[in-house]
Structure formats: structure tokens, C-alpha cells
Amino acid sequence: MIKRTSAADTQTEMIDLAGYSLGDLRNDRSHELAEAVRVVLRQVARPRANLGGGSPPGRAD
Fold first, then answer.
1. Mean pLDDT confidence for 10-16
2. N or C terminus of the chain: which is more exposed, having fewer CB within 10 Å?
3. What superkingdom heads the lineage (predicted)?
4. What is the 3-state secondary structure (H, E, C) of the chain?
């Protein structure tokens, strides 16, 4: 269920949740979803500072 997308040379390995309802998410016990949640929570807990110049804020990962 992991979807790799390419838009302007940007790829992601996050899980594709298109079409999921909240109920689906609550019932999903897959390893892929659990890993995606761990990655997001780790990024929220330790955000990176944006040291860029005039570009909008964002993440490179």
C-alpha cells in the first residue's frame, strides 16, 4: 500500500491514504501504516529549522 510518486523529482514513501475513512484508519493494523505514523510523529517531535533564504518554508525530506 506504499505509494511512490514523482512530481518535480520529489519522491515519497509515505502510505497512500486516498479513499480511507477515519474508520478505515482506526481498523488498519498494517505495518506500513504504523511505520508512517512513527515517521510523522518523529518529525513533529523534532522539527527541523528552515535556514533557507527567500523561499517558502518547507522540508527537504
1. 75
2. C
3. Bacteria
4. CECCCEECCEECCCECCCCCCHHHHHHCCCHHHHHHHHHHHHHHHCCCCCCCCCCCCCCCC
